[in-house]
Amino acid sequence: MISYEPFWERTKESGITTYALINEYHFSSSTIDRLRHNKPVNTTTLNDLCNIYQCPIEGIVKYIPDDAAAEEK
User: Fold this and answer.
1) pTM of the model as a whole
2) Which GO terms describe its molecular function (predicted)?
3) Checking DSSP bridges between strand 62-63 and strand 2-3, what pairing results, if any?
4) 3-state DSSP assignment of residue 52
5) What pLDDT, in 10s, does the model give residues 30-61?
6) What CA–CA distances, in Å, run from 21 to 4, 36, 48, 64, 72?
7) Treating both helix axes as pointing N-terminal to C-terminal, what angle do 5-14 and 43-53 enclose, rounded to 10 degrees?
């Protein structure tokens, strides 16, 4: 499972809000919703987020093996 927990932590720390992502960086609200619910997003979106937050991919996503994800539920 891919988790966007690092993205939300980085958003909180940086002060770049979801409002700014939508209105200044032109992300769709559906993309923000997909991130909020750990649903798939395309690699272009991940690249754009890395550029905005000036971080490596690990600053946006975290991989959780499926068996560990099942244990967390």
Assistant:
1) 0.85
2) DNA binding
3) antiparallel
4) helix
5) 999 999 999 999 999 999 999 999 999 999 99
6) 15, 13, 10, 26, 29
7) 30
User: By three-state DSSP, how is residue 17 classified?
Assistant: coil
Please, which pLDDT band fits residue 67 given cuts at 50, 70 and 90? confident
The label of the residue with tokens 């909180």 reads 12
Distance CA 73, CA 63 (A): 16
Token reading at 28 = 């769709």
The one-letter amino acid at 46: L
